[in-house]
Design brief:
Length: 387
């Protein structure tokens, strides 16, 4: 089948790879121009790692890991109040754990698929029209083409979802936070460690990027706003949200770029159905979990893989879409529920709350509580076949 994928991110590229492997002809439209830089770090393990291994890219990813020996929770004076060592993290996860730049994973997927799919950068869809025999698609440049299926892998603010299922507000669940991140020079002597620093209602995270001498600063704060401010207002909005912050945060905010500040709200997507007619969704487009799950990229790869596999196993696309959804959705729902619970206690609203959080972390982040930690954060369900 000739299949259009909207979105050349983690889910879309994984999907294109496996569709090609099963004999289909994938066409990918990606809104961004080719060769994006920068971005943010992700924890990568579990199902996503298993799919990466089946694609033969796990060794390449392992070679590009970010240096992460521990996660340190520091107080206002920079003292370590609690720490999670990589050794314990790997024990909790019960398998390989990689800290990666999001772009590292996208690049590895892009290289794995570049000769297997027609990938068109700087392009999007503007209209979709279904008929019994196919789907007609109009693109931003005015071109019109027909496909057998259209698969939306265009992220949490999916245009495919908007066009085929309805407005984002029908499916979005705001977790009450916004995040922002950007690269800064490493003048902090951070070494191979990630630091988390909480203040009432706000958190600053700092970790090494894949560029020597460069760190990524990530900011999380509580907000009732459901969308980020316009690009031109983001730096001011971030500084406003972190007014009177600790010296470390204030110093990082001074380095905020005027342009290119990545900002979004933490929004989960839940939908009664991931498919309609000849159109289906995968990745964040139908199942965004937010960064508090630390498994969005992993499940995006699971989604791409399982959707292609279902289309391979079922002659009828409707049966395939249903099988894919039934297979993946319970695992997604479990992770979304855990991410919501985690978000509630992520950033305490008061200083005594933060002190209590440090105390609990000091007690719990130990081998003795491996099982408890695994139930909270691990990839506990087996979603893939053994093959
Ligand atoms: C700060 C941060 C930290 C995170 N940490 C982790 C973590 O530790 N572990 C983890 O597993 N996950 C993490 N995640 C989540 C993870 O990045 C996402 O769940 C994952 O990227 C989802 O993949 P996707 O392919 O569905 O969507 P995306 O990666 O968002 O890809 C969507 C693609 O579609 C493109 N696109 C969008 N609109 C259109 C359009 N109209 N037309 C064409 N193309 C379009 C976009 O340019 C993009 O390339 C984090 C996310 C953030 C923001």
């Amino acid at each position: 089948m000739r299949i259009l994928i909207s979105g050349g991110g983690i889910a879309g590229l994984t999907l294109a790879y496996w569709l090609h492997r099963y004999g289909h002809t994938p066409v990918v439209v990606e809104r961004a121009p080719h060769g994006r830089l920068g971005g943010y770090g992700i924890d990568f393990f579990g199902t996503g790692y298993d799919v990466a291994a089946r694609m033969g890219i796990a060794d390449r990813l392992a070679a590009h890991q970010l240096p992460t020996e521990s996660i340190r929770y520091v107080d206002g004076a920079g003292r370590v109040a609690a720490r999670l060592d990589r050794r314990l993290l790997e024990k909790v996860i019960r398998g390989p754990y990689l800290a990666l730049m999001h772009t590292t994973l996208e690049e590895a997927l892009g290289d794995a698929v570049h000769d297997k799919a027609d990938i068109r950068y700087g392009r999007s869809i503007t209209a979709i029209e279904q008929s019994p025999g196919g789907v007609g698609v109009t693109f931003t440049d005015g071109d019109f083409e027909s496909f057998d299926l259209v698969l939306g892998a265009d992220g949490v603010h999916s245009q495919t979802r908007e066009l085929a299922f309805g407005p984002e507000g029908d499916f979005a669940h705001h977790l009450g936070y916004a995040m922002a991140c950007y690269p800064v020079s490493d003048t902090y002597g951070l070494g191979p460690h990630r630091i988390h620093h909480s203040e009432p209602g706000r958190q600053t995270i700092l970790y090494p990027s894949d560029v020597p001498g460069q760190l990524i600063a990530l900011f999380l704060h509580r907000t009732q706003d459901r969308r980020p401010p316009p690009r031109a207002q983001r730096r001011t909005a971030l500084r406003g949200a972190f007014a009177d912050a600790s010296p470390l945060t204030a110093q990082l905010l001074d380095a905020a770029p005027e342009e290119g500040l990545f900002m979004d709200t933490l929004t989960q997507i839940t939908m009664p159905s991931w498919h309609t007619g000849r159109i289906a969704l995968t990745g964040d487009a139908c199942s965004a979990m937010t960064l508090t799950s630390a498994q969005g990229a992993s499940m995006a790869m699971a989604g791409g893989y399982l959707l292609a596999q279902a289309l391979h196993r079922h002659d009828d696309h409707r049966a395939a879409f249903l099988a894919y959804q039934n297979r993946l959705r319970p695992a997604v729902q479990q992770r979304q529920q855990r991410a919501r619970a985690f978000a509630r206690s992520l950033v305490p609203a008061t200083r005594p709350g933060i002190a209590a959080q440090h105390l609990i972390s000091r007690l719990v982040l130990r081998d003795l509580f491996t099982g408890l930690l695994r139930r909270g954060y691990g990839d506990t369900t087996s979603i893939l076949d053994r093959t």
